[in-house]
Amino acid sequence: MVRERLAEVIQREADLVVCGEADDRAHALAAVETSRPDLAIIDLTLKNSHGLELIKDLRIRAPHLAILVVSMHDESLHAERVIYAGARGYITKQEATRNILHAIRTVLQGNVFLSDKMALRLAAKIARQPGSQQRASIDTLTDRELGVFEMIGQGCGTRQIARALRLHMRTVETYRARIKEKLHLKDADELRQFAIRWQQSGSLH
Fold it and tell me: Average of pLDDT values for 160-188?
């Protein structure tokens, strides 16, 4: 529904056209190869993978493609990751219908689109001296660990996560163990409860 709504908004503009749509990584890669768009609008939540994986794939296969992420996930946690992965902008779905056209044109012009708050946060982080102690928080999770953590928060078990991310169950268990260690959680139940609370609130640091 969100994708259809965004497509309608974009199609009303005389200088913009939607040349393809997809709901998973494989079809997105195929659509980019066929349609060769100037811009890809990507959600972080895809059918069989995480949006960060798609961004990294596109950076390799279509290095000149501009990428804008439109997602429900908390900007303070994800915006930095998507920029480092190769996207040029991040906008939440709550803001998308109002600001999506401005975000699209900003990114197509070769600029980065972020909220004022997030831009200031990133600027402050870059300005800080290196060597500061890293917080034991969700920010320390790798992209893959974050994807597993999000699925735990959605109520998925190890088997479901393995099937969705195309991983072995033993690999998922390894990721779960690393997440518990990084977040200082003592057992699987504490991990699940923390992940659910974080998923509901958007972000816990």
Answer: 89
Rounded Cα distance, 189 and 43, in Å: 29
Domain that holds residue 95: 2-127
Q: Which two tokens stand for residue 82?
A: 């998507």
Burial 39-56 (b: 16+ CB within 10 A, else e): bbbbbbebeebbbbbbbe
Provide the pLDDT confidence category of residue 127 given band limits of 50, 70 and 90: low
91-100: long-range contacts (C-beta < 8 A, 24 or more apart)? 91/115, 93/2, 96/2, 96/6, 96/70, 97/5, 97/6, 97/9, 100/6, 100/9, 100/10, 100/70
User: Structure pTM?
Assistant: 0.63
CATH number at residue 20: 3.40.50.2300
Whether 16 and 83 share a structural domain: yes
Identify whether 71 is part of a domain.
Answer: yes
Per-residue model confidence as pLDDT tens digits over 54-89: 898 898 889 889 999 988 876 677 787 888 888 999
Same domain, 75 and 99: yes
Domain final residue pick, 101, 127, 153:
127
